[in-house]
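Structure first, sequence second, as always.
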């Protein structure tokens, strides 16, 4: 009787928040970039799963039944509050108190019209720090390795930020038009102005009136380029660009990776450097 109860109890706890058999901490990240932070910082102490599959759209992505189960098995859940992913928020509400839920927006100055905080490398730095604290709490035995991993990754983010500051210093234009409102943080950090066509919902289509005012804003600011986003239909941006007689180019929002990017081992640092090349060409930076 006692044995049956005990084994029942053990089975129950192992199906919820016990770390993996090999001692690694189960981390569920709400999307690609947070998964990358967890992998970089946690190294061999963590097993990381991203809730957004390759090429899926992060904002409106609907979790599968298996993914919800995965969330419930997590030791640590990393997410961004502020309604970036409503599906994740509602699934999180049902998690047991033993699942450590970490909102990586804490400590970041927010613009509530634009959830894409990670496109400013300094915000990434703050998120790396918060992830490091959370993973150390979940895996105290790995404290030294986690601290060292976090320091190394932060150094590379600082280097990226320096290169972006330098690369975007002298440009013939500092204004660009974008698809959805994804590049506000990046623009602010590097003293650029981003004029979004749609709001922060990539699914939303702007009205004709909206398009007119965007075209007017782009003219007034003498924007030379419209940056569209990978994974989004570019029709709207292309027709606006034709009307204004300006060019289009593609920036990456780093919300999700394509299978091809995964195969080529492209991550945050590499894709931001590609964004820098695109920005420099589009804005005419010397
Ligand atoms: Zn987005």
């Amino acid at each position: 009787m006692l044995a049956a109860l005990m084994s029942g109890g053990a089975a129950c706890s192992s199906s919820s928040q016990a770390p993996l058999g090999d001692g690694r901490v189960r981390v569920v990240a709400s999307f690609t970039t947070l998964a990358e932070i967890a992998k970089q910082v946690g190294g061999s102490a963590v097993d990381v799963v991203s809730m957004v599959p390759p090429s899926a759209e992060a904002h409106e992505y609907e979790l599968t039944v298996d993914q919800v189960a995965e969330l419930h098995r997590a030791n640590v859940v990393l997410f961004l509050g502020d309604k970036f992913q409503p599906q994740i928020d509602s699934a999180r509400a049902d998690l047991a108190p033993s699942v450590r839920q970490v909102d990586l927006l804490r400590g970041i100055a927010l613009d509530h019209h634009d959830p894409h905080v990670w496109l400013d490398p300094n915000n990434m730095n703050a998120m790396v720090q918060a992830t490091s604290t959370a993973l150390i709490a979940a895996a105290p035995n790995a404290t030294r390795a986690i601290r060292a991993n976090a320091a190394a990754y932060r150094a590379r983010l600082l280097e990226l930020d320096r290169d972006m500051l330098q690369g975007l210093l002298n440009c013939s234009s500092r204004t660009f038009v974008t698809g959805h409102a994804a590049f506000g943080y990046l623009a602010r950090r590097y003293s650029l102005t981003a004029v979004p066509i749609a709001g922060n919902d990539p699914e939303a289509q702007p009205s004709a009136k909206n398009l007119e005012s965007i075209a007017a804003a782009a003219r007034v600011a003498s924007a030379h380029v419209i940056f569209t986003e990978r994974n989004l239909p570019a029709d709207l941006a292309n027709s606006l660009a034709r009307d204004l007689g300006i060019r289009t180019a593609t920036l990456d929002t780093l919300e999700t990776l394509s299978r091809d990017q995964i195969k080529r081992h492209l991550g945050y640092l590499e894709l931001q450097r590609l964004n820098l090349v695109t920005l420099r060409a589009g804005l005419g930076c010397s």
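Margin note: The chain has two domains: 19-156, 166-283.
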